[in-house]
Amino acid sequence: MAKQTINIGLAANDHTGDPLRIAFDKANDNFDELYLGRWNVLSHSAVAVAHTGTVAETTLATITVPAGAMGANGMLRITQVWSFTATANAKTMRTRFGGTQHNVFLVNTAVANSRFQLEIHNVNSAAVQKGAQANTGGWTGTTSALTAGAINTALAQNITLTAVLGLSSETMTLESYTVEVLYQA
User: Fold this and answer.
1) Domain match, 4 and 81 both
2) 67 shares its domain with 30
3) pTM score of the predicted model
4) I need a surface site. Which of 24, 104, 109, 121 has the fewest CB within 10 A?
């Protein structure tokens, strides 16, 4: 649907604009397109969160996906930008959706940053998912297969972004992330 513009008339109270009922019908249609449509940013942050001082897995961000946001065939896209100490020591980033781990990436290169993207889509059900990943710069994926999930997206679910260091003296920083619903069906 194209954006519907409300006709406000030529001057106040000149009776040439849309009647109130038609105007609010257009407004409701525009909001439905925005909130129930094909694309919606659920969360984003450009506030860097660093992990250092421990080799324990540490949660750096938690994002809630509202109940029903994906529908039976909807898709989430999770984009992350990371920086890290540029050494050959192992560093691990994990993304979980509703507790199911959808990827693990190990960094063991001298590259100091990376952009990572994960897509998780429902498969004809609000409780069956597949996930695929893509990355640029420095990350080595532990698997290239689609990751399967059985998370009930009819209920609110959390996405967690975590980091694990090989040495506590090094640092991994989640520089930014964006979580989007690409479409809802």
Assistant:
1) no
2) no
3) 0.75
4) 24
